């Protein structure tokens, strides 16, 4: 599957994300190449769901709370062959789809993540996240894993392993 053949779906689980979701979604709808955006709300009692509906018609509410449940539900609704799980308060760079597709152009890649950094880090935060990102890269050499802020997977492989374990809190 080449770069051009891949459709990307971004799944965002939400719970009381009214303060963040509009900023994230307004950035995502401008991304080129275009992406499918799926928002799954776990029963927020604020305006998260209503705000999300302004940006995508693929907005769902589920009865049971749980980030794994929301992510799994979203992956099943997604039409893309690459699914990106993104937290509601994450601001990816505008070229993240292009970079991700380059990684997934290798048919041996099943999943990918990236380094994270606060938008305007103070020095101590910058130093901490530099160390943290290095630690994650080193640990991944031993046992592949990812943080939850940003995780991209091939949908077929994700579904083959039954997605996230819904009995785990995160």
Write the layout of secondary structure elements.
Elements: E1 8-14, H1 21-28, E2 36-41, H2 48-53, E3 59-61, H3 67-77, E4 82-86, H4 96-104, E5 111-112, H5 123-142, E6 150-154, H6 155-160
Parallel strand pairs: 1-2, 1-4, 2-3
Antiparallel strand pairs: 4-6, 5-6
Could you characterize what this model shows?
The chain has 170 residues and is α/β, with parallel strands linked by helices. It has one domain: Spore Coat Polysaccharide Biosynthesis Protein SpsA, Chain A (Alpha-Beta Complex), CATH 3.90.550. The chain is 35% helix and 16% strand. The chain has a six-stranded mixed beta sheet with strand order 3-2-1-4-6-5, with helices on both faces. The longest helix has 20 residues. The chain is globular. The two termini are 31 Å apart. The mean pLDDT is 88.
């Amino acid at each position: 599957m080449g770069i051009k053949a891949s459709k990307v779906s971004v799944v965002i689980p939400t719970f009381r994300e009214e303060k963040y979701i509009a900023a994230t979604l307004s950035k995502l709808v401008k991304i080129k190449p275009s992406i499918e955006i799926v928002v799954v709300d776990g029963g927020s009692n604020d305006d998260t769901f209503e705000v999300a509906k302004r940006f995508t018609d693929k907005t769902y509410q589920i009865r049971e709370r749980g980030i794994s449940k929301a992510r799994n539900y979203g992956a099943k609704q997604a039409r893309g062959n690459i699914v990106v799980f993104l937290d509601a308060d994450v601001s990816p760079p505008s070229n993240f789809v292009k970079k991700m597709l380059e990684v997934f152009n290798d048919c041996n890649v099943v999943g990918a993540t990236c380094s994270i950094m606060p938008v305007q880090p103070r020095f101590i935060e910058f130093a901490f996240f530099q160390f943290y990102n290095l630690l994650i890269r080193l640990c991944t050499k031993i046992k592949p894993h990812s943080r939850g802020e940003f995780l991209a997977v091939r949908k077929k492989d994700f579904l083959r392993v039954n997605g996230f374990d819904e009995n785990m809190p995160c």
